[in-house]
Amino acid sequence: MSPQDKELVALFKGLDTPGVSDAMDKLGIPGQCLGIMPLADYGGAVVGPAFTIKYVSCGQPAGTVGDFIDDVSSGDVIVIDNDGRTDCTVWGDIMTQYAGLRGIAATVIDGVCRDVAKALGDGYPLFTRGRCMRTGKDRVEVAVVNQPVSIGAARVVARDIVVADANGVVVVPRSRAAEVAEVAQRIEAAESRIRELIAQGQTLGEARAELGYHRLQTRGA
To answer: What is the dihedral of CA 84, 88, 94, 100, to 10 degrees?
Structure first.
């Protein structure tokens, strides 16, 4: 990753997708990747710049399905737009192994994966629409790399900041990353204080009123 990539990723340290999603709602920024779910209940959030890939139905002869991975940097999140297809996969055990060896942070797919035992065993973070054994070879091929793609209706541009955890995936536009992280940190601080107050005996209503909870995620409030 570039120094700027590392700086932007560091801004999201300690945050999770609910907090980032709330911040984006407050700022009026779309980016929740609806329908994309984690393969496992990962213990923490993965944050990294997006390396985007767009798949299309293959031509004759069929093109490649995975050679792009040689160009992905350590710490990147691979983001694959396969049009939400669930009839064929674009990720399997060899890709999982190679991504892990290269230090790639995670893979997000608007589509399905296979060989899930390998990903679960290695602890490699995968976020997809589901699982299917059927290969994408000779069915789909890479069309473009590092161009804008759609993941669960969210637009993803190369080097946008991806935040993914057990709750799902959000994508923060790179130009708004610092702003989103700042608002998310404020929201997390307020919610942390609310948890402290209710542990001390306040009612939830009292604690929320003291911290202005109902304005935390409201746009323009």
So the answer is: 10
Sign of the alpha-carbon dihedral angle for 42, 72, 80, 170: positive
Q: Distances from the Cα of 164 to the Cαs of 56, 97, 132, in angstroms?
A: 25, 20, 22
Contact 11, 181 (CB under 8 A): yes
Residue 100 near residue 119 (C-beta atoms within 8 A) = no
Distance CA 45, CA 162 (A): 10
Query: What are 121's two structure tokens?
Result: 């065993």
In single-letter form, the type of residue at position 151 comes to I
Instruction: Give the domain ranges of the chain.
Output: 3-11+30-172
| Residue 168 Rama label (left phi>0; alpha psi -120 to 50; beta) | left
Q: What is the pLDDT along the chain (221 residues), one digit of tens a residue?
A: 799 999 999 999 999 999 999 999 999 999 999 999 999 999 999 999 999 999 999 888 877 778 899 999 999 999 999 999 999 999 999 999 999 999 999 999 999 999 999 999 999 999 999 999 999 998 999 999 999 999 998 999 999 999 999 999 999 999 999 999 999 999 998 888 888 898 989 888 888 888 777 777 777 66
User: Considering the domain 3-11+30-172, what is its CATH architecture?
Assistant: 3-Layer(bba) Sandwich (3.50)
Q: Is the pTM of this model over 0.85?
A: yes
